[in-house]
Amino acid sequence: MKKTISKIKNLSNPDKQGYYGDFGGAFIPEMLYPNVEELRSNYLKIIATKKFKSDFKALLADYVGRPTPLYFSKNLSAKYGAKIFLKREDLCHTGAHKINNTVGQVLVAQHLGKKRIIAETGAGQHGVATATVCALMGLECIVYMGEKDIERQAPNVARMKMLGATVVPATSGSKTLKDATNEAIRDWINHPDDTHYIIGSVVGPHPYPDMVARFQSVISKEIKKQLKKCTGKNLPTHVIACVGGGSNAAGAFYHFINEPKVKLISVEAAGCGINSGKSAATSQLGTPGILHGSKSLLMQTADGQVVEPHSISAGLDYPGIGPMHANLYKSGRAIFMSATDEEALAAAFELSKTEGIIPALETAHALVVLKDIPFKKTDSVVICLSGRGDKDLATYMDHL
Amino acid sequence: MNKLDQLFSSRKKNILNIYCTAGYPTLESTSTVMLALQKSGADIIELGIPYSDPIADGPVIQQSNMHALQNGISIEKIFLQLNEIKDQLKVPVILMGYLNPVMQYGIEKFCEDAANAGVSGVILPDLPMYEYEHFYKALFEKFGLFVIFLISPQTSEDRIRKADKLSKGFIYAVSSSATTGKETDFPQQQAYFKKIKNMKLNNPVLIGFGIKDKTTFDMACKHASGAIIGSAYIKALENSKDIARSTASFIGDILNP
After folding, report:
1. Which of B128, B149, B179 sits opposite A27 (nearest CB)?
2. What's the pTM value of the predicted model, to 2 decimals?
């Protein structure tokens, strides 16, 4: 395994064609080519401009509320026998890390002169984060959301509407995140000139996985600095994050990916159990395939039809993972673990009662594996607390 | 000689290409539909391989894909069905599908089985020209399968040239930036069609997306070698009690009203 890792020079960014090892690329219909190509040939230039850098930095600081705290959790540390830190992305404006990316992309969209923004959303966090930046910038915003998710994430639907966005139900297929993404892609095909598609995770055709990872990388950049202050060292021994598409994990891992000493732990949603037929643990159940414009691991039938995943958390209810994560899995650089619906619920209640923090259901998955990892007392463990749990109160109340 | 080349060398005008979804409206109807299309005067049959996530398609074809998958269609069954009628099919057959099911079937096996089943060409809208050129071209050529690429009003001239270089049989010109079945504003596309015409491409051009009846077919034929009809025909099959009769009347209305 070590050999594979040392052979690969850079696991955090794709090559010119958008490949992370065997995964990535841009498998898009010709009708989307000009849009994606415009983005591909401009995104690195735009984010390197002085104006972008200063606008992005200022908005992250004053609007999003960054840096988010790195909180030393005494109670979890005592319980699990290591120094456990929580990276408080739940304290970002709108309640999750998703806004780091939407701020970045809306600035890119402005540079490209786009007037209309579309997005897909699962749990609604990305939809809210997109609606928020569109309200701020005075841009039209259309959010596609699975009909099933609209029902189970009602508060976020209300927030998007209040922010002035139009929420369009995706009624095809499983009526969840995958189908919302299909609808957003179809919208983009139908609006080739004036529209920018803000993808919410490190999925989609190149350059999206790389662009989103770069915007989320502020998470690990801050962790490095903050950890140095707390422990004297800027490298943790473990970084743990939940993975659906994988945007908070990409951000929390980014600056540690090429530091082989740091153990990267990705936690997928096992749903009712990996082999229950109701799961979203893509690394365990998936095979190489193409969905939403990139080659990655994908839950599919032998015939190549995409399988409907299941997770109690709408944000992890996705049959694929970003190509960067597929490569981290295949190369052995990241350790993939999983948590069931029940375990995630229990972990959410535990964190609420021991630390006074109500996490999002997605985030709760990351907390589950603490009990399964043999820590040393000297280990410093960072968990990306990607979002807060207000949106999941209805589910939590059913289990009180 | 590939049947597509035969067709276009004998006729360059008013080519009617009709799309149908394999396994739709019923699992066993694939051959009935195809033979009815041939009998009624379709020049090319584009047979859709159903997929769970057809991102370039509008609601009508999406629904037909879903139904066909529920009916139990698969690539394996499509080849079985085609093999049963290949001797009766004189018109060229093109398979249209998304890359993932084809990849899982195995691209080489797919090419081999398609060629054996009498298929002349393939349209894979999410197979980018770059990937095709670098990884798959040799395989398709080995089995004599023509690959047809799409262009849209947003496609640059350089890229149209590239699509022309890589395509065999014909070029699929998407009439407007849209998913299939969308109403299009034909007069607005005149400039785009003229541009393509003036480029004097090596391949004949068929226009697709938004072609639904005699008026739109005739309009498309003014600018290109012919046109492709999909959603409108699927709609005609939706409530059909007699596939042969519905097909005859659908095509009759377009060719000899």
Report:
1. B128
2. 0.96
